[in-house]
Each structure stands twice: as structure tokens, then as C-alpha cells.
Amino acid sequence: MANRTTGDILHSARQTLTTMEKGLADLSSGDPNRRVAGLHNLVVFGRAVTNVLQNLRSTEPDFDAWYAPHRAEMEGDPLLKYLYTLRSEILKEGILPLAVSTHIRQLRFPEDLARLGPPPPNAKGFFIGDSIGGSGWEVELADGRTEKYYARLPADIGGATVHLPDAPATHMGRPLKGNDVTTIGGAYVAYLRKLVMDAEHRFAQRKAED
Fold first, then answer.
1. Beta-bridge partners for 147
2. How far apart are CA 163 and CA 112, in angstroms?
3. DSSP conformation class of 96
4. Is residue 38 packed enough to be buried (19+ CB in 10 Å), middle (13-18) or exposed (0-12)?
5. Is the distance from CB of 54 to CB of 70 less than 8 angstroms?
6. Which residues pair with 73 in a beta bridge?
7. What tens digit of pLDDT does each residue of 66-100 get?
8. How far apart are CA 152 and CA 130, in angstroms?
């Protein structure tokens, strides 16, 4: 878009970051139907944040001097490089390399299933911890196919944790607490939130002082 100002670009970067943060909220929600979309949005819009910021090159003569150390930091960080590659896999190949670990604290069968509410019509079985970390009922359809009906499993019964199995163990020189998607997503959002704030402080504040 022609004639965009520094303020326009920074506003767009902030909006893109907000979309990324919504992806993290979906990823952390525990709803398997939102989890995959949340990871997709987190990774794709995370990269978009840096793309938007680079538009400042057209309005700020010293942008490259400011951005160069940030770019070097991102290129040298194992987690940020991993997420950049993951974005390419998602966009080009539709790949989400998820792994799920399931833990059962206490399950009394069939008493505890009643806490999930009545099963849907034609339910023929119950599952815990599928490929995207969901639990619920297997429902037989009229044509003989079986579909999944997701339900929220009470935390005192158990749950599932979704991991990115090949993710690095460190970020910014420090060990990550785990390779679950919430930990990795939270670290990514925190890094880009700081990057946007740094850009706002450097360029928006200077414009206000001019």
C-alpha cells in the first residue's frame, strides 16, 4: 500500500501480533478443534509480524541499523529458526508434526463418564488422547462411518499434552521448560511482543518528539 506512514506500519504490526496471540489462546484452550488452528495461526502470523515490521524500511532511514541485530538474533536462535522452518512446512506441505502424551489420574468406569454428560446418539465407544490431544465419543453415522465427538475431560480424571517432538530445548540461551505447544508458543509470543514494543519505542516515540 502506497504512502503508508510509520504509524500505519506499527499499527499493522500490533494487529498482526494480536492475531498471533489469539492463536496462542486457541492453542492453550484445551479444545482440540481450536488447537490445530491455533498452532497454525501462531506460527504463520508470528512470521508475518516480522514481515510487517520490515515495511518500516520504506519510512525510516535507519531501520536496517535497528533491525540488523534483531535479525541476527533470530537467525541464531534454535527455537526461532525451528518455527520459521515449521511455518514453511505448514504453508507448503500442510504438515503439523504433533505428538501427544496422555495421562490418566483416576478413571472410574463407567461412573466418571457420566460427568461428561449424556453421550451423543449412536455413540459406540470413548477415547482419550487422540492425535491432536482430544477426548470424547466415537459416533457411528447412518452410512456406517465413524466420527469423533469431542468432549472436555475433567482435569482430575486426566488429560493430554500436545508436543512438537523435534523442537529445540533452548531459546535465547536458556533451557525451555518443555516441548509442549503451549510452552513453545508462549516463548514465541513473548519474543515477538518485545520486538514490536522495541520498534514502537524506537520509531513511534521519536516521531512524537520530532
1. 139
2. 27
3. -
4. buried
5. no
6. none
7. 999 999 999 999 999 999 988 887 777 666 677 77
8. 13
Considering only the C-alpha atoms of the chain, give the largest distance between any 2 of them, rounded to a whole number of Å: 70
Tell me the torsion sign for CA atoms 120, 162, 28, 196. negative
pTM of the model: 0.76
pLDDT digits (tens, 9 = 90+) for 26-39: 888 777 778 778 88
Residue 24: per-residue pLDDT: 92
Tell me, what DSSP letter sits at residue 180?
B
Q: Has residue 151 got a pLDDT over 60?
A: yes
Residue 18 cell numbers, joined: 494480536
**What's 120's DSSP letter?**
P
CA-to-CA distance for 47 and 63, rounded, in angstroms? 18
Q: Is 10 left (phi over 0), alpha (psi -120 to 50) or beta?
A: alpha
At 2, is the secondary structure helix, strand, or coil?
A: coil
Residue the block writes with cell 533470530 = 74
Are 10 and 49 within 8 A, CB to CB? no
